[in-house]
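#help-structures

NK: newbie question. if I give both the sequence and a SMILES, will the prediction place the ligand too? trying with calcium ion
OV: yes, paste both and it writes out the complex. here, I ran yours:
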Amino acid sequence: MKQFSLLLVLVAAFAVHTARAADKPNIIFILSDDLAQGDVGCYGQKLIQTPNLDRMAREGTRYTQAYCGTTVCAPSRTSLMIGQHTGHSPIRANREIGAEGQMPLPAGTFTVAQLLKSAGYATGCMGKWGMGMFDTTGSPLKLGFDHFFGYNCQRHAHSYFPKFLYNDDQRFDLPGNDGNTKVEGKGPIYAQDLISGETLKFIKANKDRPFFLYYSITLPHGTFQINDQGLYKDKPWTEQEKNYAAMVTRLDTDVGRILALLKELKLDDKTLVMLAGDNGSSFPPDSALGKRFDQAANGLRGFKRELYEGGLRNAGLARWPGVVPAGRVSEEPWAFWDFLPTAAELSGAKIPAGVKPDGFSLVSFLKGGPAPTRDYCYWELHEGASLQAVRWGDWKAVRNGPSKPIELYDLKTDAAESKNLAAEKPELVAKAEALMKSAHTDDPNWPMRDSKAGAKKIAAKKKKV
Ligand SMILES: [Ca+2]
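OV: that's the protein plus ligand as structure tokens.
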């Protein structure tokens, strides 16, 4: 009898365990490289077709004030992975290391992939990494990802016809590709074909257990290279414009493939899909591309490498049928450093003592509730001058270098950040300065500076597009 009771207890315990595993939702975070709000139909784009993203917005929620970690790749992605804003995080700019790879995440970094792995999730990263080569402490394979596929190095990802890619840490050649990072680059193998295929394979392979897919899709980042201009082939546009539009539409198509597969595998109602760009538009609204695609239409100031809203706000979508309200448009802010606490609540995983995320769980917000209450959002960027920005309530302050004056904007009436109210509101400027001071921790890798050399480099980069 005793043995029978024990058996019952064990059976019950097993049932509870499997029920819990089955209850855990799959989490897919699709992070596009440089996709801007103004590129996407549901945000107002008229010429570039994005039917799947638009459908995702109809079937889920669209966020008009979803914020990136900061406004270039590596530090923005770091915020997403580790749950810290750029006043605390170890990576606060793109920094190239050696011939391939970026400054690695340091030893002891705790990522959202490690968190989800601890809760029994299969974890995969497909696309581009940019936070450390495989032989460093920043390797994705040492930071919680079971599987990696794509480009480790951001510079390598400038070619869409690269000479090689990585499957985990194993480099494999793509014969015939020229690896050219100019627009003329060509070859028989478009890297995104392989990366997209790998994401679908990963989902299929893990359909019976909870999984986390960090799909760090490289489109539509420059260099603007595409293997098929598709819908735009015969448009009276420049090659660059046709390529850019085709890249955004290709991204859309590949997101559609994922949504279709989730439906086919009956994983729709147990999978949260979030999508965002890692920074705002990569070109200014008054550039040729900006004008062609009317990037000024969303009325935001600035773009990539600036801490104005056009650089910081991303095309943020979430879809989870039956859980995330369909057709909702939220104007409340959230930021990349909220993702790790959100993943913790969704998975039931425990954030280890000593790991201190800056963000808040978005679970009730995703379900239709109000955004978490927070004191402020904060951003830094150290490419050239050290830029800082802080938002509290509807107030936003920007300082384009430690010795520069603080600019103050009221986002409620002036989302375009066109009217600097600093002179009229000295008490709010003082508050902004105090918030910037408290949010910023010194880091010898990222000294605060008004670098002229850096400013030139940024100006050169801006001129290129
Ligand atoms: Ca980017």
